Structures are given as structure tokens and as C-alpha cells.
Amino acid sequence: MNKLIFTTFFLFLMPLLNCMAQSDLHSGTCGWGLTWTYSEETKTLTISGAGDMSDYDRKNKTAPWYNFRRDIQNIIIGPEVYSIGECAFVDVSTDSIAIPNSVARIGKWAFFSSELKSLTIPLGITTLEESTFNGCRSLSKINLPNTLTSIGDKAFYKCKSIISIDIPNKVTSIGEFAFWECTSLTSVTIPNSVTKIGYNAFDGDVDNTPIIQTIISLIENPFEIGGRALYEDNEYRGVFSRKTFDNAKLYVPNGTIDRYKATNGWKDFNNIVEAGGSEPGPNSGGEVGDVFEIDGLKYEICESNTVSLISGFSKFLCDVVIPDQVTFNGVPYSVTAIGDYAFECCYIYSITIPNSVRYIGSSAFKDCGGLIDVYCYAETIPETNRNAFGSDVLNATLHVPESPVSTYNNTEPWCYFKEIVPLDGSGVQALEADNSVIQINSIRGERLETPSKGINIIKMKDGTTKKVLVK
């Protein structure tokens, strides 16, 4: 009888024990004060609590969710997680992840061989450690914060989908093999803050070298880098591949070309030009396809003396005023287009688009956190990709000329704005007499004594700006 009771109790208890065991495999701790849970139903990994994540490795101490790595489709990191541990998300299948601003460190190999396609690294991160994104072959869009000061060895090793990279203007060092075999890389911008670039940073194996076409160096006092003739232990140690030295255009600041041509490494480029022009010198302009930078915005020369605005150097621009015209090497160019992804994931609260713009590309202003106002002075609605703006416009106000308001209201994606209101063309006289006005500029940045015809940027004593249209 006792045996029968025990057998019955054991059979009843077994499913409960199996359920508990299974549950234990789907949750646990991952650092002091942090827990993790994985839901098979939603394929979501959630990191909760307050604290630093533990460090792991790829062999002896893998992350506790490692067995689910190929199934994970979503990762949620809580707002009080202070770090992402070494090897935390090796091989995970998710293609995107939102890293909260609380994270101040991302460990070595953290996203090794993951399937990330895009990522924004939050403000506060100062260092990308060794191999942070090594082997992320699908990663094509990476936004680096202005707080970043160094990029570690192999940080983006074999990230074969990255097309362009703008190094933030506080970075002082770029590590060895940092962008090795980034075979889709065509454009690189290096700020004046950089003082060291490691061996083979932008190189690759003979059959897998980057196809870099454009290098914009803002370094005013060039330092020696590994050139096309540098070898150690019979290994090539040039910063760039020989193909890049031979075929890429190196754009340098005005007045520095002689310094670059006299500095080891840089002097190996076959094509060095000042400020992005095809030939340095006054009134020479540039060739179609040339890229240059003015006031933190990057432009590409198109046909018929026009340019397309292709990106902003800073990802935290706050207030973007796009000029209707820019002058390069003495030649004026009309700004007629805003390119694909030009300001994607930039923090912007105000955008001013001039009447000259005729085209706005895909994701040009997508995910601009904090967007409040868009001032579009185009009387004729620009040809606009329906994905040009993200969901931010649902809470933003669009200001347009009075006559085409109804047309904007009935045209995608402009009709998605919370509200569309006519631009205020009045109040100019009041502004002229207002003692709180401290400066008046044209949309091109020229200082004005009084408001003039067109768009006027009015700076007030309290630090705010107003945009006034004078007809």
C-alpha cells in the first residue's frame, strides 16, 4: 500500500519537477543585481534589475542564454543596466537592439558574430573595446556617440556590410585591424582629434579589401601612419590597402595639402585634394561625385551645379538648418536633395528645409528622437520617399508656406505630422524692434543687420532661435 502511494505521488510530482527544471533553464542571474529571462513564445531575452552585467567568454563560461542564441529575436535591456559584459551576445540572431543610456561600458567581443543590422551606441560610452562587433557581417548602419574617445583593435573586424563610417570628433585613437575586411566600406571621415591610427585599420586580405573611394581627413597636422611600403616580419602593415592608396580620393583641410604630401603614409595617396575639390585653387569648384563638408554637413556634387546633402557629422545636431546654397572652391551650388539616411538616428528637435530642395530620400530623417518642429519652405512639395520620416512626426508640427498647406495635408508622408500650420510671415517689424534679438542670420549663415527676403534665423537673448520668412 505504501509503495502504491509513493509511486502515485512520484508520478504526480514528476511533471511539476520537469516544469520547474525547464523554467530554471529560462531564467537566472547575470550579474550583481541583474536577472535574465528568456521566453520561447516571444523569443525575447530580457535583462532586468540595476547593476553591471557579468563578463563571459566564448569557451569556458558562455552567457547563460547562449543555448538560445540562434532563437533570440528580441533583446530588451532594462534602464538601470550599467554595462554589457564581455561575450554577452555572441552569435545572437536578433538584427537590432536598443541599448539604454544607462550603459557606460560594452565589453570585449560583446556582439561577436551576431546578426545585427543596425545599432545606435548611447551617449556615455567612451571606448569600444577589442572585437566588440567583430564578425557582425550584416551590420550596415552604426551610429557612434560624440562621447567616444577610442576605437579598439578589431572593433569592426569583418563587418562586411558597413558602407560608410564617420568617426566622432573626440576620438583620439583607432586600433589595429579596426575595420579590417569591411569590404563594402566606401567612405571614411576622420576628425581632427585623431592622433593615432593602428596598423591595417582599414585594410584586408588581397581578395577582401575595402573598396574605399572617399577619405575625408579633418586632421590639420597629419602624423605618420603605416604606408604602402611598410612591412614587419614580412607582413604588410599599411593603415589602408594598396588599392585605397592608389584609387581613393583623400580630402584634406584647406592649406594642409603640402603637409600631407610630406608625411609618411599620407603621402602615398595618389590623389590628395584640399577641401574636397578635384583641383585645389580658387573658383575651381569640383567634379560630379566629389564630397565636401561645410559647417558639419557633408555634401556630394551632382550635375548642373547642384549638391545633395548626404549626412551630418554629428549624431546630436539638435537644430538642423539646411542652406539653400553652399559655395565650394569659389563655385556656388544649389542644395536640391537630401540623401537616403542623411540624418537617420540623429538627435534633432528642429529641421529647416529650404525652398531649393526637390527630393528627400529614404529614411533621411528616420528615428530623430525629440523632433518637435519641421520648417519646410518648399512651395512645391519635394519628391519625398514615404519612409523619409519615422514615427517621430506623429508628435511634431510641420510649418509650410500658406498656399500649399492643403496639398501637404493630402500627401504622404507629410500628412502624418501631428499638425500642419502655415509659416508665420508676420512679425518681422516687431522682431526688428525687439530688444531680445541679439543676432540675425540668413539661412546660409551670413550675418544680417536686418531681416531680408527669404528665411531669417533670429537668435534671442535667452538662447532660443526663431525662423521668420520674409516675402
Multimeric state:
single chain
Spans of at least 5 consecutive residues whose pLDDT stays below 50 are 4-24, 276-283, 426-433
Q: Cα-atom Rg, whole angstroms?
A: 27 Å
Largest sheet: 7 strands, mixed
Give the overall shape, derived from the CA principal axes: globular
Distance between the termini: 101 Å
Number of helices: 5
Give the % helix: under 10%
Structure classification:
mainly beta
Account of the 3D structure:
The strands form 9 sheets. Strands 21, 22, 23, 25, 26, 28 and 30 form a 7-stranded mixed sheet that branches. The protein has a 5-stranded parallel sheet with strand order 12-14-16-19-20. It is built from 5 helices and 36 strands. The radius of gyration is 27 Å and the shape is globular. The model is unreliable at 4-24, 276-283 and 426-433 (pLDDT under 50). The termini are far apart. The chain is mainly beta and 471 residues long.
